[in-house]
Amino acid sequence: MNATILCVGTELLFGQIVNTNAAWLSQKLQILGINVLYHYTVGDNPGRMRETLIRALRETDLVITSGGLGPTQDDLTKEIIAEVMDDELVLDERALAEIETVFSRAGRRMTDNNRKQAYLPKSGTTIYNDVGTAPAFALEKDGKIVIALPGPPRELQHLFETQVLPMLAARSGSVIRYRMLRFYGVGESDLETRLEPLIDGQTDPTIATYAKEGECTVRIASKRPTPEEAETALDETENRIKEIVGKYLYSDQDQDLAEVVLNELIAKGLTISSAESCTGGLFADSLISYAGASTVFNRGFITYTNASKEEMLGVPAETLDRFGAVSEETAVAMAQGTLKCAGTDIAVSVTGIAGPDGGSAEKPVGLAWIAVVTASGELRTKKHYFRDRGRNWNRKTFVLEMLHQVYCMLETISC
Amino acid sequence: MNATILCVGTELLFGQIVNTNAAWLSQKLQILGINVLYHYTVGDNPGRMRETLIRALRETDLVITSGGLGPTQDDLTKEIIAEVMDDELVLDERALAEIETVFSRAGRRMTDNNRKQAYLPKSGTTIYNDVGTAPAFALEKDGKIVIALPGPPRELQHLFETQVLPMLAARSGSVIRYRMLRFYGVGESDLETRLEPLIDGQTDPTIATYAKEGECTVRIASKRPTPEEAETALDETENRIKEIVGKYLYSDQDQDLAEVVLNELIAKGLTISSAESCTGGLFADSLISYAGASTVFNRGFITYTNASKEEMLGVPAETLDRFGAVSEETAVAMAQGTLKCAGTDIAVSVTGIAGPDGGSAEKPVGLAWIAVVTASGELRTKKHYFRDRGRNWNRKTFVLEMLHQVYCMLETISC
Fold first, then answer.
1. Do B285 and A280 touch (CB under 8 A)?
2. Domain of A203: which CATH number?
3. Are A154 and A247 in the same domain?
4. Do residue B322 and residue B375 come from a single domain?
């Protein structure tokens, strides 16, 4: 099956917002084995919307629209789809009741415009919206399907995951299950090469790799007659992947490294503190951005100057003089000083050269030393170096490496 | 003039990358007074690329393409454009020489594929690429223009700003100048209402407003016969805007609040330190993400627990007990403790409720207290409250408010 993604909204054509829905939907349709041939964006203009929809339906079997389902006069997506598909809009009582509930709960007055949102194509299947006021729908005619979703990414993603994905899978008498496996410490091309024997000739589950700053994700997806068969197929494939590259896997639930580390700390009842130089608080932020952090993150030191390393953490001046601020010795002294001040179970430190200045042949931009110490006397250090790709890219990779060293310490595995 | 933006690349249709070029180009074309009617994305497929280009040229006068100018067999944008516009590709000697220089400088071997990049439409105008290997070009025929740009955003943006923008402006015998004015402390709709008398009936310079997390940007653009006239027109409009909402303006050079604060600190030779609770290092990060931070940012304290506020900053237990961790008194004690420990000219603190838990009727999620103190004894505090829009949105607004309080202290203006 071939598909077009048709995004509607003048704010997209003005460049006021970046279209993230097209990429998101494309990834999900790929899981279903549906080829996306076109992304189109048009403004809130009935003529151009009509022509573009007609073209999309001629060229592909499935058209997914986003946007234009709101209560205002500009929102014409439903009207145009009904017209092009030779259908009509009728009141959906359940949709109306749901919109009324949203308004009465919020203590807001409902207008006739909002009532308009409950009018939906007569021959369509309503996709009731439990996270917003705009109901979505699917409409099929002569072997062509249009699925209209609301524009806000949170609503679009939720409705797609919970209702559209199962609906599309069911058309082929199948269910779809997929998992995102997250890896650290292995490059994308290396990962692909190692998994090649598995990827080649494998039709279900499908395996796809994605790269992100210093990280890789492998998506495995299975389309089978029953959920049990799909899950079993995923288990088997996941196990085969683990046999090959399992030592780099840190999450099979699409979680960030920070979230995984935080959950491990919570599960083990351990507290942590940090000392950062060039990362300037980004490590602490990576944990504190999750609500559960308050039970495990105790305090952080941002020691950006040599004086602050000495005064806040008791790093000896001799250590800084003899080995330099960016050295294994300084990283260890920073972590030990942090542990002592904070009294936590674990302390982690980083000292590095983020650039653009400050690098040398011996200590280039992109180099960092990381140390992790525990109250029970364990110590691990890591010399981290990635090719310099700019100050903030470097800083993010330093934080990932800190998280990974803490993760390794928690797992007591060698990395 | 009406335009289509046509992005080429299978990686876009797979959802592996989000298309930021379409929004970026749309904003810039709007400055030129060009209406963008469509965004299209197609894969590296000659048939669909050809059909889509033909349609775009029928529907609009200007087509800007991005992507498909690389050295591989997949890269077919030039070939398709030449075919559709009835032109032919010929060797551009200067383009070839430039590509050869890039390779010889990098010590890399040049292949025949790279040589292919120097073949360009015979009747076109080459847009030489000083930041990459793919030359771009403009080709005009029968009143229709195609401009082909490389896909990597850094190259596309640079070539557009330096060559395409002047080229398109010159077609109307004009030059284009524009400025981005950045505001803090005023909402977008409020700003629009206040500027309405200026916006209404104003044809040049044009005025457009944009909203971002807790901030607003106003773009003013002028298209005039000479650069001097355009700059004079911008000066006049900027002055009129300043008369109305000048007290909220913090940059007329499209700089972040963090960058503005950092540059002010550097210019005044002042040092700063920080104490953060729920923002967890984000304030320090906002400054340290800029390379110049090392001369002004001394150290930061992430005091996420009450104990750490007492031990690291000497906040009295009585203050915490009596007024609570989120209070003016605690914020002041944190800032004063930071100033004392760090010995900087300025210290700033924040203590707030980021959510989702921890709020109450009296102290709701989204509330923060901020304090700024100086070595010369000045003190300012601010109770910040925005409606809760999620933990990390709240945390970002807290950081913006911290930056703004420091900015106000530096300007010694009242906000």
1. yes
2. 3.30.70.2860
3. no
4. yes
pLDDT tens column, A271-306: 999 999 999 999 999 999 999 999 999 999 999 999
Q: Find chain A residues with C-beta within 8 A of B2's C-beta.
A: none
pLDDT digits (tens, 9 = 90+) for B72-110: 878 899 999 999 999 999 999 999 999 999 888 878 888
Residue A284 to residue B288, Cβ atoms within 8 A: no
Query: According to DSSP H, which parts of A150-252 are helical?
Result: 153-159, 165-171, 188-199, 227-245
Confidence at B415, pLDDT banded by 50, 70, 90 = low
- ipTM metric: 0.86
- The shortest CB-CB distance from B302 to any of A284, A291, A357 is to A284
What CATH number does residue A110 fall under? 3.40.980.10
CA dist A284 and B98 (Å) reads: 46
Residue B94 sits in the same domain as residue B108: yes
Same structural domain, B69 and B167:
yes
Q: Do A281 and B278 touch (CB under 8 A)?
A: no
Phi, psi of A63, deg, nearest 5: -125, 125
Kindly state whether residues A57 and A115 are assigned to the same domain: yes
Is the CB of A413 inside 8 Å of chain B's CB atoms? no
| Number of Cβ within a 10 Å radius of residue B264 | 17
Three-state DSSP at B67 gives: coil
Are B105 and B192 in the same domain? no
- Longest Cα–Cα distance of chain B, Å, equals 82
- CATH code of the domain containing A337: 3.90.950.20
B251, B270, B287 - which closes a domain: B251
- Angle in degrees, CA B62, B45, B148, rounded to 5: 30
In terms of residues, how long is chain A? 415
Domain limit, last residue, from A224, A251, A278: A251
Asked whether the beta carbons of residue A289 and residue B391 sit closer than 8 angstroms, the reply is: yes
Q: How far apart are CA B393 and CA B365, in angstroms?
A: 11
Average pLDDT over residues A102-112: 83
The DSSP call for residue B246 is G
Which run of H or E residues covers position A83? helix A77-84
Examine residue A356 and say whether the peptide bond preceding it is cis (omega within 30 degrees of 0).
yes
Paired tokens of A96 = 């109306």
**For residue A413, is pLDDT > 70?**
no
Let me know the angle formed at the C-alpha of B162 by B160 and B163, rounded to the nearest 5 degrees: 70
Q: Are residues A271 and A392 in the same domain?
A: yes
Domain region containing B305: 257-411
Q: Do both A134 and A261 map to the same domain?
A: no
Decide: A326 and A367 in contact? Cβ < 8 Å.
yes
Q: Which residues share a beta bridge with A299? A: A273, B303
Query: Rounded to the nearest 10 degrees, what angle do helices B257-268 and B391-411 cross at?
Result: 30
Domain count for chain B = 3
DSSP codes, B277-294: STTTTHHHHHHHTSGGGG
Q: How confident is the model at residue A414 (pLDDT cuts 50, 70, 90)?
A: low
Q: Looking at chain A from residue 305 to 334, which residues have their Cβ under 8 Å from any Cβ of chain B? A: 305, 307-308, 311-312
